[in-house]
Amino acid sequence: MALLSLSGVTSQAPKLCLGIKRNRRLKRRVTVSLVADLSEKPEIEVEFRGPKKGRDVVETAKALSGEKLLRNIMLDNNIDLYATYGKLMNCGGGGSCGTCIVEIIDGKDLLNERTNTELKYLKKKPESWRLACQTIVGNKENSGKVVVQRLPQWKK
Ligand code: FES
């Protein structure tokens, strides 16, 4: 007899349990248990490339899939997002200034589609450009790596 159950106890992480309780021919009880921790959430690794203090640097950050906007990941990890004007005049992530432009070099499939705000501000820009404040990193189920070029308008 096999028993398969999924249990979630509020004080513990959810577990998947598989148990085999008895074997009649051997007339003794056999118990096999398999326990898997299902609480681990998928993560997205983000690599940022771009100029900083006169040289190109690479910085990395991680975020739970689908939990954060790219802008918030950058600000939380002290990764420069704005050029000088944007540092002073950005809209705080409201999607009304167009100063938080980044270029997605790799991993665009791990992000949401361009929003209507982006379609308006980035109409004449390359398809790979996004507004960081409109870009959701992950969809809560996927995981992988996204490579982002900061300040693509400065790229040579
Ligand atoms: S911060 Fe203003 S549009 Fe993104």
UniProtKB/TrEMBL annotation:
GO cellular component: mitochondrion
Cofactor(s) the record lists: [2Fe-2S] cluster
Domain of life of the organism encoding this protein: Eukaryota
Single GO MF annotation: electron transfer activity
Gene3D superfamilies xrefs: 3.10.20.30
Domain 2Fe-2S ferredoxin-type: 89-137
Database matches in InterPro entries: 2Fe-2S_ferredoxin-like_sf, 2Fe-2S_ferredoxin-type, Adrenodoxin-like, Beta-grasp_dom_sf
GO BP term, pick one: P450-containing electron transport chain
Similarity comment: family membership: Belongs to the adrenodoxin/putidaredoxin family.
Protein name: Fer2 domain-containing protein
Protein species of origin: Cephalotus follicularis
